[in-house]
Amino acid sequence: MSAVGPASPLPEEPITPPPITTPSRKVSVRLQERRGSNLSLLLDVSSLGAEPVCSVSTPKEVWLQLLHTSSRPLNHAALQDAAADTHTLNAEYQKIPPNFVSAAELDVPGHVIKDRYKSILPNPESRVVLRSLEEEAGPDGYINANYIRGYKGAPAAFIATQGPMPHTVGDFWDMVWQEGSSIIVMVTRLKENNEKCELYWPQPPERERKEEGEEEQREEEEEEGETGRFGRFLLRVTDSWEKDGFTVTDMEIQLCAERRPIRHYWFTSWPDHHIPQCTAPLLRLVEEVESYRKSLLPPDPQPITATVRGAGPIIVHCSAGIGRTGCFIVSSIGCQQLRETGQVDILETVCQLRLDRGGMIQTTEQYQFLYSTLAQYSSQLQHRQEQNQNPKDQVTEHLQNLQLDKTQTQKN
Question: Most buried among 19, 60, 100, 104, by the most CB within 10 A?
Answer without folding.
Answer: 100
